Structures are given as C-alpha cells and as structure tokens.
Structure prediction request, 354 residues.
Amino acid sequence: MLLVTGGAGFIGSNFVLDWLENSSEPIVNLDQLTYAGNLENLASLRNDSRHIFIQGDLGNRELVSQLLSQYRPRAILHFAAESHVDRSIHGPEDFIQTNIVGTFRLLESACAFWRSLGQEERSQFRFLHVSTDEVFGTLSKTDPPFTETTAYQPNSPYSASKAASDHLVRAWHHTFGLPVLTTNCSNNYGPFHFPEKLIPLMIVNALAGKPLPIYGDGQQIRDWLFVNDHCTAIRRVLESGQPGETYNIGGWNEKANLEIVRTICSLLDQFKPKSDGTSYSAQITHVADRPGHDRRYAMDASKIERDLGWKPKETFETGIRKTVHWYLDHPDWVKNVQSGAYREWINQHYEAQS
Prediction:
C-alpha cells in the first residue's frame, strides 16, 4: 500500500493512473481538492478497489495519523503543493501554509508512524518528497544546468516555500533518521494539466479564439518533461533510490516560452485548422513581464540515469504532439475544469499584466 498526497492534481493523478496501470499495489489518495485537484482526472478508477480516495488536508495530523494506522503504507509519496508562481505573487500565504506547514505536519505524522514499525518494516519504509527545479533560482544562457548540489536561490514565494519544504525533509532525515527521498523536477506538461500553466493555457485559449499571453519577450527558457516520464522516474526512485539522496528529473528539453507557443500554434494549424485559414499564431500577445521572473531553468539529470538507469522516453516533439491531441480529444474535461472562479482569476490576472 502507498499513501499519496495530492493525487488528484496534475502530476499526482498521472502518477496514480500510471501506478495502477502497472501494479496491483493499492493507493490511498489524500487530496484536499482545492482549485487544481480534480477527481475527474481519476474517473477511470471510479470502480477500482485499488484506489482509495480520501478528501482531506495533509496538515490534519489526526486524519493523517489515522490513515497511516489504518492502512499502514510502505511509503508516502508527497505530491501535494501549491505550485503556480503567479498565484504565489498574489496570495503567498496559501503557499506558506500548504508547502511549509503542511509538509512539516506530514513529516511529523510520518516520523511517528515510522518509529512505530517493526525493524524490517522500518528499514523498507520511504518518504518521497516531490519538488521542483525552481528552488535553484535562475541561470544565464551560458551557465551549466542545475545539479543536485547547486545552491538554493529561490526567487518567488512559490519557490521559496518549496525550498523550505525540501530543507525540512532533509532535516527530518539527518536529525530523526526518517528514510526520505527528494526529487527535483523540471517543468511538466501533458494530460490533465490545469489550464493556467503555459502549455494548457495556450491550447485552450487558442481554440477559444482568445489572446495567447506571453510574458515580456518570451525568451524565458525552461526544461520540459513529459509527465509520464516523470512518473516512471518517481517509480525508479521509490524502487531503488538511496535514503537521504536527491535526484534531479529533467527532460533534456530546453525551450524558450515563445518557441513553445509557436509550436503549439503550428500543431493546432495541422490538427484543427481555423475555418478562415489563418494561423493560431496571430493570437500571440505580449504582456508585461511578471515580477522576479526567472530567465532560465535547466536540469542535469545525469545522476538518476547513472545511478538508477532512468532517462526520459519522450522528446519534446513527441510529447507536445501527444499533449495537444489529448486536449483536442477531451473537450468535456476542459469545459468542466474551467469553473467560473478559474475564468475570473485568469481574466483578472492577465488584464492587470497587459
């Protein structure tokens, strides 16, 4: 049995689906179902007894302790997080509460449970913390990619909160002996991505005939990782990672934001051409850059390849085609996820930036 936090979110739900497709081992899925948590992501598991969904707050010590006592998982996989930089600028307190306080309380519950186990179970138990490359700050065009030993230099409330959670996880290992694993991933994309992030927002806005808002000059560079590749990497780290170690997970795909958006427009021109024959790229609009916008992220994922034999299967070209096709094939999911609150937030944010 595994306990997964945030398993109704983008990466978490993809992991749950991938795990249950490849394993008979059940999952207890704890998710508070905030704006980005969506049970529709897990609709295919509705009648699957291996998926036990619990709506609740990971910071609720009583609830988490009860779940640990009842289900006795061999591992906790901690995906749950507030993760959108723009939201952290406008409302940082939620990020402090979820990413820092929530992780602290989860660690306390996990540590108490781990100590209660017998010697063999204790030796096999793992706490896997899923983090981000944004904790490392920003790079120039000529800087080498981030490694696991790169100094932390977070530049947004979001990345600062994730950096703090990383440090807490490290401390619980070194101080209390909790067998932890930490992964720092690059930008994910793929199915079930909540449409406020760059790639799904551009697909959804393009199809709706809306502007495609690009921050500044659009030359901010990110390393892009197809979410299914991320899931297989986490499986490998859980299986064979060494307690106390950190593993960078990247796609080896550095792309500028403007290039990403132009690629999406080109694919949509092929897959769903506009009736007037014009390109979706005509909808690209540049807006004022956001405060503290990191210029470049790049991940050196050679450690996980060397030590655990993992490397991504998807190139950006194959992954983005699959992603665009998925959104075209799932209009009902897109329609349902776009609640009134979501549309209101997007409109308010980008109107303020333009």
User: Anything to note?
Assistant: The first helix runs from residue 10 to 22. The CA atoms of residues 189 and 199 lie 7 Å apart. The two ends are 48 Å apart (CA to CA). The chain is about 45% helix and 15% strand.
